[in-house]
Amino acid sequence: MLQSQHNAISAFESGLEGQSPNILNSLKRDHDLLKSLYQEYNNAKSTEDQERIAKEIFKGVGIHDKIETLVFYPALRDSGTEAGNNYVAQSLSDHENVRSTLYELNVLIEDEGEFIEHSEVEEKEIFKFCRKIFDDKKIEKLGRELDAMRKTGDIEEMDSIEKTVV
Predict the structure, then answer these.
(1) What Cα–Cα distance (Å) separates residue 38 from each residue in 1, 32, 52, 67?
(2) Is pLDDT above 60 for 36?
(3) What are the residue boundaries of the Hemerythrin-like domain, all occurrences included (predicted)?
Protein backbone atom coordinates (compact mmCIF):
# COMPACT_ATOMS: atom_id res chain seq x y z
CA MET A 1 0.00 0.00 0.00
CA LEU A 2 1.30 3.48 -0.79
CA GLN A 3 2.25 5.55 2.24
CA SER A 4 1.90 9.12 1.04
CA GLN A 5 1.15 11.36 -1.90
CA HIS A 6 4.85 12.19 -2.16
CA ASN A 7 5.81 8.50 -2.44
CA ALA A 8 3.20 7.77 -5.11
CA ILE A 9 4.01 10.81 -7.22
CA SER A 10 7.74 10.22 -6.81
CA ALA A 11 7.23 6.68 -8.09
CA PHE A 12 5.41 7.92 -11.19
CA GLU A 13 8.09 10.54 -11.83
CA SER A 14 11.09 8.26 -11.33
CA GLY A 15 12.53 5.38 -13.25
CA LEU A 16 12.97 1.85 -12.01
CA GLU A 17 15.92 2.50 -9.72
CA GLY A 18 18.51 -0.26 -9.63
CA GLN A 19 16.96 -2.19 -12.51
CA SER A 20 17.79 -2.24 -16.19
CA PRO A 21 15.42 0.06 -18.04
CA ASN A 22 12.53 -1.85 -19.54
CA ILE A 23 9.47 -0.01 -20.74
CA LEU A 24 7.15 -2.95 -20.15
CA ASN A 25 8.24 -3.30 -16.51
CA SER A 26 7.90 0.43 -16.01
CA LEU A 27 4.38 0.58 -17.46
CA LYS A 28 3.40 -2.48 -15.41
CA ARG A 29 4.69 -0.71 -12.30
CA ASP A 30 2.47 2.29 -13.18
CA HIS A 31 -0.54 -0.01 -13.56
CA ASP A 32 0.20 -1.58 -10.17
CA LEU A 33 0.57 1.84 -8.52
CA LEU A 34 -2.74 3.01 -9.97
CA LYS A 35 -4.51 -0.18 -8.89
CA SER A 36 -3.11 0.34 -5.40
CA LEU A 37 -4.33 3.95 -5.39
CA TYR A 38 -7.82 2.85 -6.43
CA GLN A 39 -7.82 0.33 -3.59
CA GLU A 40 -6.58 2.98 -1.16
CA TYR A 41 -9.33 5.33 -2.33
CA ASN A 42 -12.00 2.67 -1.83
CA ASN A 43 -10.70 1.95 1.69
CA ALA A 44 -10.21 5.60 2.71
CA LYS A 45 -11.80 6.52 6.02
CA SER A 46 -12.38 10.22 5.31
CA THR A 47 -13.35 12.57 2.51
CA GLU A 48 -10.03 14.35 3.02
CA ASP A 49 -8.14 11.10 2.37
CA GLN A 50 -10.28 10.40 -0.70
CA GLU A 51 -9.54 13.87 -2.11
CA ARG A 52 -5.79 13.43 -1.52
CA ILE A 53 -5.81 10.01 -3.17
CA ALA A 54 -7.95 11.27 -6.07
CA LYS A 55 -5.28 13.92 -6.75
CA GLU A 56 -2.64 11.18 -6.77
CA ILE A 57 -4.73 9.18 -9.25
CA PHE A 58 -5.11 12.22 -11.54
CA LYS A 59 -1.40 12.93 -11.44
CA GLY A 60 -0.47 9.28 -12.00
CA VAL A 61 -2.90 8.80 -14.88
CA GLY A 62 -1.64 12.03 -16.46
CA ILE A 63 2.00 10.99 -16.29
CA HIS A 64 1.26 7.43 -17.44
CA ASP A 65 -0.88 8.68 -20.33
CA LYS A 66 1.83 11.05 -21.57
CA ILE A 67 4.54 8.40 -21.39
CA GLU A 68 2.49 5.88 -23.33
CA THR A 69 1.40 8.50 -25.87
CA LEU A 70 4.88 9.97 -26.43
CA VAL A 71 7.12 6.87 -26.18
CA PHE A 72 5.31 3.53 -26.15
CA TYR A 73 2.57 3.94 -28.75
CA PRO A 74 4.80 5.59 -31.37
CA ALA A 75 7.21 2.64 -31.06
CA LEU A 76 4.32 0.21 -31.57
CA ARG A 77 3.09 2.20 -34.56
CA ASP A 78 6.63 2.31 -35.99
CA SER A 79 6.81 -1.49 -35.81
CA GLY A 80 4.99 -1.42 -39.13
CA THR A 81 2.65 -4.25 -38.20
CA GLU A 82 -1.10 -4.27 -38.57
CA ALA A 83 -1.48 -5.68 -35.07
CA GLY A 84 0.72 -2.89 -33.67
CA ASN A 85 -1.41 -0.27 -35.40
CA ASN A 86 -4.60 -1.91 -34.12
CA TYR A 87 -3.29 -1.98 -30.54
CA VAL A 88 -2.33 1.69 -30.79
CA ALA A 89 -5.73 2.68 -32.18
CA GLN A 90 -7.58 0.78 -29.45
CA SER A 91 -5.31 2.06 -26.68
CA LEU A 92 -5.58 5.67 -27.83
CA SER A 93 -9.34 5.28 -27.87
CA ASP A 94 -9.21 3.85 -24.33
CA HIS A 95 -7.03 6.77 -23.22
CA GLU A 96 -9.45 9.27 -24.72
CA ASN A 97 -12.27 7.63 -22.79
CA VAL A 98 -10.26 7.81 -19.57
CA ARG A 99 -9.39 11.48 -20.20
CA SER A 100 -13.02 12.41 -20.73
CA THR A 101 -14.04 10.42 -17.68
CA LEU A 102 -11.42 12.14 -15.52
CA TYR A 103 -13.57 15.25 -15.59
CA GLU A 104 -16.16 13.33 -13.61
CA LEU A 105 -14.12 12.31 -10.57
CA ASN A 106 -16.81 10.27 -8.86
CA VAL A 107 -17.52 8.23 -11.96
CA LEU A 108 -13.82 7.52 -12.50
CA ILE A 109 -13.12 6.49 -8.94
CA GLU A 110 -16.25 4.41 -8.56
CA ASP A 111 -15.70 2.70 -11.92
CA GLU A 112 -12.13 1.54 -11.52
CA GLY A 113 -13.08 -1.45 -13.67
CA GLU A 114 -12.47 0.54 -16.85
CA PHE A 115 -8.87 1.23 -15.84
CA ILE A 116 -8.30 -2.32 -14.63
CA GLU A 117 -9.68 -3.75 -17.87
CA HIS A 118 -7.44 -1.45 -19.94
CA SER A 119 -4.32 -2.34 -17.93
CA GLU A 120 -5.04 -6.07 -18.12
CA VAL A 121 -5.49 -5.98 -21.91
CA GLU A 122 -2.32 -3.93 -22.23
CA GLU A 123 -0.30 -6.29 -20.03
CA LYS A 124 -1.65 -9.57 -21.42
CA GLU A 125 -1.96 -8.73 -25.11
CA ILE A 126 0.04 -5.64 -26.01
CA PHE A 127 3.08 -6.39 -23.84
CA LYS A 128 3.14 -9.96 -25.18
CA PHE A 129 2.98 -8.58 -28.72
CA CYS A 130 5.85 -6.16 -27.94
CA ARG A 131 8.02 -9.01 -26.72
CA LYS A 132 7.48 -10.69 -30.09
CA ILE A 133 8.28 -7.69 -32.29
CA PHE A 134 10.92 -5.89 -30.18
CA ASP A 135 14.20 -7.37 -29.02
CA ASP A 136 15.51 -6.71 -25.50
CA LYS A 137 17.67 -3.83 -26.76
CA LYS A 138 14.63 -2.01 -28.16
CA ILE A 139 12.61 -2.59 -24.98
CA GLU A 140 15.49 -1.25 -22.88
CA LYS A 141 16.02 1.73 -25.23
CA LEU A 142 12.35 2.64 -24.85
CA GLY A 143 12.69 2.16 -21.10
CA ARG A 144 15.63 4.58 -20.99
CA GLU A 145 13.59 7.16 -22.97
CA LEU A 146 10.71 6.74 -20.56
CA ASP A 147 12.96 7.02 -17.49
CA ALA A 148 14.63 10.14 -18.90
CA MET A 149 11.22 11.75 -19.42
CA ARG A 150 10.21 10.91 -15.85
CA LYS A 151 13.46 12.20 -14.33
CA THR A 152 13.68 15.44 -16.31
CA GLY A 153 10.01 16.26 -15.90
CA ASP A 154 9.47 16.36 -19.66
CA ILE A 155 5.98 15.11 -19.13
CA GLU A 156 3.34 17.79 -19.61
CA GLU A 157 0.88 17.86 -16.77
CA MET A 158 -2.79 17.44 -17.40
CA ASP A 159 -3.40 20.71 -15.53
CA SER A 160 -6.96 21.10 -16.70
CA ILE A 161 -7.84 17.75 -15.17
CA GLU A 162 -5.99 18.34 -11.91
CA LYS A 163 -7.80 21.66 -11.46
CA THR A 164 -11.13 19.85 -11.45
CA VAL A 165 -10.17 17.96 -8.29
CA VAL A 166 -11.61 19.62 -5.19
Answers:
(1) 11, 10, 12, 20
(2) yes
(3) 23-113
